[in-house]
Amino acid sequence: xxxxxxxxxxxxxxxxxxxxxxxxxxxxxxxxxxxxxxxxxxxxxxxxxxxxxxxxxxxxxxxxxxxxxxxxxxxxxxxxxxxxxxxxxxxxxxxxxxxxxxxxxxxxxxxxxxxxxxxxxxxxxxxxxxxxxxxxxxxxxxxxxxxxxxxxxxxxxxxxxxxxxxxxxxxxxxxxxxxxxxxxxxxxxxxxxxxxxxx
Length: 199
Prior knowledge:
Radius of gyration: 16 Å
Order of helices and strands: EEEEEEEEEHHHEEEHH
């Protein structure tokens, strides 16, 4: 089911005992898939991805670095190299059978925010809440996909697929990676609740 989606939204839920991303098809009120793990968001345990009428059929595993099928066959890797005040972050999406897709800021507002000198002052949690982040992943012979973290205190991630060959499980890994590096209050509160000595 999730592999047939051309556009979907991921809504994370954080707690000290579990983390869940609910996946909604465009225009639907009920989730069509969920990525779940019985631990806080920053643990290295993989998310188990479920779909089906009861969201109980295992279809794969994702981490903020890779995705695997339910049989634990590796689909590919995602990566982010942090930039500096003067240089943008570099994102990569490496899926078997596809050229490497490189990700970067897309849209005037995102490009402006992630360019020098604004990047030096707008790389923080309040700015993440005020401004959306739009990344476009493309490669030789592939239009790839776009991923948008919508502005607001409650993080939401919108995905639009432009190349049908792109594996949606690996896109979920990319969502998990963007979320991992996101500064949002709900994530922070779940982090403190799971370990009061942090922060």
